[in-house]
């Protein structure tokens, strides 16, 4: 009898596996896909993977099963700069058309944004901004959320988003200060937290609305695999002084809410 009770207890524990979510990664860059499969099996049951250029889009769309892996599609600031002048419009239109074609199955436009660390000159700043705004327009017209990259550019990113009254925004790998975080919070924007310890970010998290924080692995660039979100969740739990399990539950709900992913993983039917 005692043994049976223990067995039931053990089974209940395994059934109650924690369901984690990764709000931002690039699994098309992970060579060995078994790394992703094992992260899913270990509990990272929702993964949002971002295409960053024309090359990574097809692979990203192929990997998205809309059950565990969901696609965001865009052109990031680094790749905006790599586009040649004579094929610039052609490349943008190619990506825009793919997004339009798949607008019911992709969960966001991303990643897009500004990166002043790599920009090197005013002309390139304008080029990045042009690409960023074209995709923000598209997101508004398709009523899709956006996943935004911002490096050394938070001031401009905020003013662009604010001016345009952009809806449904997620600033990934948030690196801004407390004041910038408050501005985003007031605008109803979400932020995501990478698996990197930083006292500045911890202070931001401590004062940011828990309902608008998401965990991200940014793998394989920062974390090794989507499994690294476990560390991001721990950092949030610590900063908020909350229980790890509770943090898992809340942050997973945030990711699903932001990207309109229902529990049945039936995506693309509801827009904000
Ligand atoms: Zn990224």
Describe the overall structure.
The chain has 272 residues and is an alpha/beta fold. It has a single domain (19-258), classed as Alpha-Beta Barrel (TIM Barrel), CATH 3.20.20.140. The chain is built from 11 helices and 8 strands. The protein has an 8-stranded parallel beta sheet with strand order 1-2-3-4-5-6-7-8. It is globular and about 55 Å long. 42% of the residues are buried. The chain binds zinc ion. The site of zinc ion (ZN) has 5 residues, from loops.
What's the CATH class, please? Alpha Beta
Profile the largest sheet.
Answer: 8 strands, parallel
Count of DSSP-assigned helices: 11
Mean pLDDT: 91
Strand content: 15-25%
- Physical arrangement of strands within the biggest beta sheet: 1-2-3-4-5-6-7-8
**CA-to-CA gap between the ends?**
52 Å
Rounded radius of gyration (Å): 19 Å
């Amino acid at each position: 009898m005692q043994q049976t009770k223990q067995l039931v207890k053990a089974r209940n524990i395994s059934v109650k596996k924690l369901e984690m979510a990764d709000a931002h990664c690039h699994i098309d860059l992970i060579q060995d896909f078994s790394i992703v499969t094992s992260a899913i099996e270990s509990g990272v049951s929702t993964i949002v993977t971002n295409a960053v250029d024309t090359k990574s889009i097809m692979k990203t769309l192929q990997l998205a099963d809309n059950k565990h892996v969901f696609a965001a599609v865009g052109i990031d600031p680094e790749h905006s700069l790599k586009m040649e002048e004579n094929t610039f419009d052609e490349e943008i239109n190619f990506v825009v058309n793919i997004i339009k074609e798949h607008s019911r199955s992709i969960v966001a436009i991303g990643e897009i944004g500004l990166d002043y660390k790599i920009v090197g000159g005013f002309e390139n700043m304008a080029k990045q901004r042009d690409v960023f705004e074209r995709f923000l327009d598209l997101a508004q017209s398709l009523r899709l959320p956006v996943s935004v990259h911002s490096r050394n550019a938070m001031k401009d990113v905020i003013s662009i988003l604010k001016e345009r009254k952009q809806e449904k925004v997620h600033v990934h790998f948030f690196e801004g200060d407390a004041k910038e975080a408050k501005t985003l919070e007031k605008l109803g924007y979400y932020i995501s937290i990478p698996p990197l310890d930083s006292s500045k970010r911890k202070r931001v998290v401590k004062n940011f609305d828990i309902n608008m924080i998401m965990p991200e692995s940014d793998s394989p660039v920062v974390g090794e695999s989507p499994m690294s979100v476990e560390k991001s969740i721990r950092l949030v739990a610590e900063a908020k002084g909350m229980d790890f399990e509770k943090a898992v539950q809340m942050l997973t709900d945030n990711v699903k809410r932001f990207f309109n992913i229902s529990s049945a993983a039936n995506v693309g039917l509801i827009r904000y």
